[in-house]
């Protein structure tokens, strides 16, 4: 919700200030004394209208967060609304009026998300460790229930109370009502007819049709007998008789253990967020805990991950560096070729050569994956006359294909920037070299190339950083394949770090979810890219440009 | 060798004897360039020619697409009507346009503030932006996914499977690289213009909307276009966020076609690819001049 207020807030900002603040600090005091004269600018109305929308959406969000009991979101919403109102109605926040909209998005969807990634990297978040300990215990008890043998059945009525379904039963002549969140409790004024509750004050009895309509809800409803989940709950299969079901696990809050009542095995809560017995067996539902550097240790130490990780790390660097080098060399060569003003039709050449760059890269990668198909692809069938070269299924050829496709995609960009750099070379320096008697080759090697590299190196570095995380190309072309033969995790020879993160996270459904490990790998990538960028920024002195 | 040629030839530009150059020398100096050019264009264009031909073939299988232009039929394009392709394309356009516009509005406003006002925290702000932008949002997709699950519990419009949520996520990266690109450009607009406007009684908002924004239109176009293109082709976050088939973008949808049944859907894919590449390609060629300027100012294809 923080997003919408700020999105509209953006338009507010400058118009808004049209009515309010203006002028340099010196003028301000005089302006404030001056009574508002002349026609009110229309911008004021726009601002008020937009701020009204922002506040309305904000209040809606706050109420929704309150209803869901989500205090974190509630606090963030309140803060955003208050700050937005302060910024756009105060006279002292001129720069913030312009920065706030983008900043709000940045804080929520980038800064917070990055910080959250950092936190998840130190937890065991993932399949089997999804939520809090209370929820895990509840889930375990629910998953391991059984009907209590020989227990009585109760005449049962399905009721609806406060919007939630519940059961009304008669036990020892007393009427009791309860819902999923509200354990069974005695109700005095209920009407009992022939051992069956027929009317409950404050609740409606469901008709037969309604029960049929909500059958699934009714049969999955569990109404706890008491506040202690170990006591079990009432369930029903026919909506007319209820039976008592208890968990086969017994939860002991004092000792922090789960006991399997059928086998007598005791599972102790451990610091890794699960219940474990003495033999090391774990119950299948655990909870989220901080695990320190375990995820990083897994990435570098656990042989299931460490081996592919090292291979993938090396390939990621090789891929990123080779991509930059090959595209740069081809682009530079073409730029030189067409840098002669005597060549006719240079504009046509340039326009046609840009084409690959203008094709969205996901389309290009998918297109090439078809053309490189071993049995039916255009490359094998037409260009190579029916050869069945395994372009995408042999480890080395797949790597070569990835580089080749990236060359096709990337050379126009390099061609453009090299052309630009060549054309902006200072003529006098070249002239001077000529006067000093340098030959063509010498001038090129000692003057042109160094100048060209200075001009393009920041772009080469950002191109490296881009290719380091070029997920789309890898995923669309090979999906990381061919798979490592020995690995128990779904990773392959052309996977780069980012596609490894994607597989490990399990969000594509091919493996068990492991958010913790995936986030840890994200952090590793960030550290690598940030280190390289920091070095470059230092060298290119981009920091100093901020005056 | 080449560069020296440039300076000499440009200083002595139109030589009358140019056409009468001996053939051997002509080839050594110019002819090979045309040869390289033709080879390079063939390399650059053959996949494009191939996909157009495949989209026009009757059968629509991968094998059938290998004989270029052996048959011309619009059946693949017609078949697109029976799929969700147009819905996906519409989604992609909505999302990419909204993101492009939002990015430009927010980035330009921030760049204006950093360029024109001197305030406490300005240096820190710019430096932090530079650092934050090093962490691509894509890397944090797990956290994005978890955040949207939580937000969706409170406000469904901002949860998973919502296009608005996806746009909001993309806009989270609006300030990053773009602010710097625009900041540099804003700095090249003389401040005297602001001063003059102020003396004439304009508020800073009037100056911003009516004067400055007009002067920086080229960079706005570049940022909008680059943002549009990168959003249009974004896959990883779009695939996580947009879960129901009707909400997919072209990138997610076409990937689904090709990854599941390469052989059967090839003609459909080719037709879809041609259609979705077409607007971007046209925009690109149309705005070529600006883009080249924008690229050399530091942007990378996304």
From TrEMBL, chain A:
Q: Note the superkingdom of the native organism.
A: Bacteria
Stated membrane topology is: Multi-pass membrane protein
Q: Which Gene3D superfamilies match?
A: D-maltodextrin-binding protein, MBP (2.40.430.10), MalF N-terminal region-like (3.10.650.10), MetI-like (1.10.3720.10)
Pfam families for this protein: BPD_transp_1 (PF00528), TM_PBP2_N (PF16296)
Where's it found, cell-wise? Cell membrane
Q: Where primarily located?
A: membrane
Question: Transmembrane residues, as ranges?
Answer: 44-66, 72-89, 98-122, 312-336, 348-369, 400-422, 451-477, 515-537
Which intervals of the chain are annotated as region Disordered? 1-38
Alphabetized, the UniProt keywords read: Cell membrane, Membrane, Sugar transport, Transmembrane, Transmembrane helix, Transport
Q: Residue ranges of the ABC transmembrane type-1 domain?
A: 313-536
Q: Which family does it belong to?
A: Belongs to the binding-protein-dependent transport system permease family. MalFG subfamily.
Could you tell me what this protein does? Part of the ABC transporter complex MalEFGK involved in maltose/maltodextrin import. Probably responsible for the translocation of the substrate across the membrane.
The protein, known as: Maltose/maltodextrin transport system permease protein
Q: Which organism is it from?
A: Cellulomonas xiejunii
């Amino acid at each position: 919700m923080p997003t919408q207020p700020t999105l509209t807030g953006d338009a507010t900002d400058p118009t808004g200030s049209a009515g309010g603040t203006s002028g340099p600090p010196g003028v301000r005091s005089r302006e404030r004394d001056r009574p508002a004269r002349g026609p009110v600018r229309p911008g004021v109305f726009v601002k008020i209208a937009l701020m009204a929308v922002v506040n309305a959406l904000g209040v809606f969000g706050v109420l929704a967060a309150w209803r869901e009991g989500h205090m974190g979101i509630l606090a963030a919403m309140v803060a955003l609304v208050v700050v937005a109102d302060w910024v756009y109605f105060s006279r002292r926040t001129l720069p913030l009026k312009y920065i706030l909209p983008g900043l709000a998005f940045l804080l929520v969807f980038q800064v917070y998300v990055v910080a959250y990634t950092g936190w998840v990297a130190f937890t065991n978040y993932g399949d089997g460790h999804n939520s809090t300990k209370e929820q895990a215990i509840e889930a375990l008890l629910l998953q391991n229930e059984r009907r209590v043998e020989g227990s009585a059945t109760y005449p049962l009525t399905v009721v609806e109370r406060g919007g939630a379904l519940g059961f009304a039963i008669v036990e020892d002549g007393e009427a009791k009502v309860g819902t999923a969140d509200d354990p069974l409790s005695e109700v005095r004024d209920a009407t009992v007819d022939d051992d069956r509750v027929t009317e409950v004050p404050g609740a409606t009895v469901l008709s037969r049709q309604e029960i049929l309509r909500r059958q699934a809800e009714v049969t999955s409803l569990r109404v706890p007998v008491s506040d202690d989940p170990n006591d079990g709950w009432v369930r029903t299969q026919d909506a007319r008789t209820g039976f008592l079901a208890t968990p086969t696990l017994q939860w002991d809050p004092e000792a922090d253990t789960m006991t399997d009542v059928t086998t007598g095995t005791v599972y102790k809560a451990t610091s890794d967020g699960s219940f474990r017995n003495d033999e090391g067996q774990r119950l299948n539902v655990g909870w989220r805990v901080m695990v320190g550097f375990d995820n990083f240790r897994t990435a570098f130490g656990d042989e299931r991950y460490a081996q592919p990780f090292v291979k993938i790390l090396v390939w990621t660097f090789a891929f990123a560096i080779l991509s930059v080098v090959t595209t740069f060399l081809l682009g530079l060569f073409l730029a030189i070729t067409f840098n002669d003003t005597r060549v006719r039709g240079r504009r046509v050449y340039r326009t046609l050569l840009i084409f690959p760059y203008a094709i969205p890269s996901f389309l290009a990668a998918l297109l090439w994956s078809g053309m490189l198909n071993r049995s039916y692809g255009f490359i094998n069938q037409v260009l190579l006359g029916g050869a069945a070269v395994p372009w995408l299924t042999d480890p080395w050829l797949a790597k070569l294909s990835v580089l080749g496709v990236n060359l096709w995609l990337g050379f126009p960009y390099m061609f453009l920037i090299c052309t630009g750099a060549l054309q902006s070379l200072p003529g006098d320096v070249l002239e001077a070299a000529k006067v000093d008697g340098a030959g063509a080759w010498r001038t090129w090697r000692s003057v042109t190339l160094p100048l060209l590299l200075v001009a393009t190196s920041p772009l080469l570095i950002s191109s490296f950083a881009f290719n380091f995380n070029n997920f789309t190309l890898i995923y669309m072309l090979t999906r990381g394949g061919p798979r490592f033969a020995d690995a128990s995790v779904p990773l392959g020879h052309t996977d780069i770090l980012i596609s490894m993160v994607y597989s490990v996270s399990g969000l594509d459904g091919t493996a068990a979810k492991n958010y913790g490990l995936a986030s840890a790998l994200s952090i590793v990538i960030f550290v690598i890219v940030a280190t390289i960028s920091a070095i470059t920024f230092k060298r290119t002195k981009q920091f100093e440009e901020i005056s | 060798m080449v560069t020296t040629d440039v300076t000499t030839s440009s200083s002595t530009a139109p030589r009358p004897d140019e056409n009468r150059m001996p053939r051997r020398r002509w080839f050594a100096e110019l002819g090979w360039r045309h040869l390289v050019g033709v080879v390079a264009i063939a390399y650059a264009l053959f996949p494009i020619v191939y996909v157009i031909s495949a989209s026009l073939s009757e059968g629509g299988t991968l094998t059938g697409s290998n004989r270029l232009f052996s048959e011309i039929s619009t059946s693949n394009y017609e078949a697109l009507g029976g799929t969700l392709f147009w819905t996906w394309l519409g989604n992609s356009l909505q999302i990419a346009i909204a993101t492009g516009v939002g990015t430009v509005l927010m980035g330009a406003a921030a760049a204006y503030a950093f360029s024109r006002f001197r305030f406490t925290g300005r240096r820190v702000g710019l430096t932090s932006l530079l650092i934050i932008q090093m962490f691509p949002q894509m890397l944090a997709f797990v956290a994005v996914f978890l955040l949207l699950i939580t937000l969706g519990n409170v406000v469904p419009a901002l949860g998973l499977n919502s296009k608005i949520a996806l746009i909001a996520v993309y806009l989270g990266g609006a300030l990053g690289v773009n602010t710097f690109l625009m900041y540099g450009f804003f700095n090249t607009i003389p401040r005297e213009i602001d001063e003059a406007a102020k003396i004439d009684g304009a508020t800073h908002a009037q100056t911003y909307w009516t004067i400055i924004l007009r002067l920086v239109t080229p960079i706005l176009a570049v940022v909008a276009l680059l943002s549009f293109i990168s959003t249009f082709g974004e896959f990883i976050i779009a695939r996580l966020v947009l879960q129901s088939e009707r909400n997919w973008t072209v990138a997610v949808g076409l990937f689904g076609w090709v990854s599941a049944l390469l052989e059967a859907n090839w003609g459909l894919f080719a037709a879809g690819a041609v259609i979705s590449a077409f607007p971007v390609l046209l925009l690109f060629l149309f705005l070529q001049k600006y883009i080249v300027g924008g690229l050399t100012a530091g942007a990378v294809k996304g």
